[in-house]
Amino acid sequence: MTETTKLEAKVLLIEPDLQERNKLAEFCVAQGLKPLECEPAGALALLEAHQDLAGLMISETLLSDPSAGPAWARSVHKLRPELPVFLRRMSDRELTPLEQEFVQFEWSSSDMENLQAIVDRTIFSLRYPTPLVQGIIDLSCTALQSMFPNAHVEAQSPYVVHDRIIQGEVSTLIAIESTWCRGYMMLQTEENALRQGMIAGLSYDGLGGELSFRDLNNMLGETTNLIWGAFKNRYIPPQAFANQQTQIPIVINHAHKYISFGSTDPQLCIRYHLTDANRPEVPALVIVQRFIFNLHWSPDQFAEYSATADSGPTGELDLF
Amino acid sequence: MAHVLVVDDSSTMREIVSSFLLKNGFEVVKANDGRDGLEQLRNDPSIKLVLSDVNMPNMDGLTMAENIRGEMGNKTVHIVMLTTEDNQAMRERGRAIGVTGWVVKPFRGEAVLGPFKKMCGL
Question: Is A141 among the domain residues?
């Protein structure tokens, strides 16, 4: 078996019972979940502020109302149907057919093992090999550093998301196909933050004057190309190039900042912070990376291939 | 001045590479794909080095190199591929065509400056 990374995931937690909330918070930490605790009144604002969540944990009874939990779950589900809803049951009543449509998982506090099993099965349904995650971070940091040579590039802890909401206005998408996976990589960022970073000189001298949105697109496009090339050279064996493979449509609704690959599996997400060491007060340029292996996924084959994979030097001239 | 033709469909890469070469005493002309690169080369006999990406729309870099060596009959200009591609089959194809060298991106100017100067007689 391949050694896999236990990634983190953010969940919205609406639990009015303090004792239960503490118990759940402990459970979350043990499972690698980061609970965003809130009262029902603050839930929608928190939902709006965090568009990279992995699920919603909610109590059946809120504010002494025995059906308030499912009602809140329904509101959240209407806004973000990709987020699995975990409802803590306090009564024996059967959920109505309507409630069952948006409450995917019921559990009781006397059965935390069941909750752990459903969290593993849903939030962490894909396991990412440790060397792959580390390799992606290494090669991405190298590519980012080469495109933004005057920035300090740092990757934050990787996590998984079930949300399908795009961050920022500039995003790129590239297909990744190997013998052990098929899917896509996306880079997403805020147009204005990228523009400010370029003007501040995080990239090359001469780049960063009058920048149209096309220039900014191109900058992220070339960064994507570099990461993709490095990924391909390190993790995709030559025999994979010969395969003619089917594709499925990718749905993007930019007005709603929405993108779907047709799969409900979690996407691997890493955020990179690019800062100016000389001006720590300036907010970081944040670039978000996601890997979506929706067409094929076989980490055991990855392990076999990565054991022999070796990436050659870059930037040096190989004279024929 | 030594002329270098930089061929890349990414305007960002064209700017990064050109600005490094200009700073180091080269004169640079730019093209945004293989077809455009061939055209530039036909019109400028002073070009001594073609620095080209591989994957580009309209005409890829290796097809352009094939055309330079074959159809144009230009055997003297140096052709160096600057690409994210690192697979052996593609390198072999480049070698068979008569490509002079291969650089895997990211571009690190200092690592290639010496050989480029030599190719351009600087």
Answer: yes
pLDDT at site A244: 45
pLDDT of B119 strictly over 70: yes
Question: Which of A232, A233, A315 is nearest residue B107 as measured by Cβ atoms?
Answer: A315
Interface predicted TM-score of the whole assembly (ipTM), two decimals: 0.86
Q: Which CATH architecture has domain B2-119?
A: 3-Layer(aba) Sandwich (3.40)
A214-268 residue pLDDT tens: 888 889 989 999 999 999 899 988 777 665 455 667 777 777 777 878 778 899 9
Chain A residue numbers touching B105 (CB-CB < 8 A): 146, 225-226, 229, 314-315
Hey, are the CB atoms on B104 and A233 less than 8 Å from each other? Answer: yes
* Residue A173, strand partner residues: A186
Q: Which residue of B has its CA nearest to A221?
A: B10
Query: Contact at 8 Å (CB) between A171 and A186?
Result: yes
Q: Which helix (H) or strand (E) holds B96?
A: helix B88-97
When CB atoms are compared, the residue of B89, B91, B104 closest to A314 is B104
Q: Which residues of A fall within a CB distance of 8 Å from B102?
A: 317-318, 320
Section A297-303 average pLDDT: 85
Residues A169, A143, single domain; the answer is: yes
Structurally, how many domains does chain A consist of?
2
Residue A19 neighbours by CB under 8 Å, 6+ apart: none
Q: What's the CA gap between A89 and A115, in Å, rounded?
A: 12
CATH number at residue A235: 3.40.1550.10
pLDDT digits (tens, 9 = 90+) for A39-64: 888 888 999 999 999 999 999 988 67
Residue A102 clears pLDDT 90, i.e. is over it: no
What is the least distance, in Å, from the CA of B83 to any CA of chain A? 8
Q: Which of helix, strand or coil describes residue A277? A: coil
Nearest CA in chain B to A146: B106
Distance from CA of B91 to the nearest CA of A (A): 9
Q: What pTM was computed for the model?
A: 0.85
- Does A319 reside within a domain? no
* A134 and A84 part of one domain: no
> Domain range holding A232?
128-306
Domain boundary pick from A122, A141, A171: A122
- Name beta bridge partners: A253: A258
Nearest CA among A194, A67, A313 for reference residue B106: A313
Which residue from A222, A230, A316 is facing B13, i.e. has the nearest CB? A222
Q: What is the mean pLDDT of chain B?
A: 93
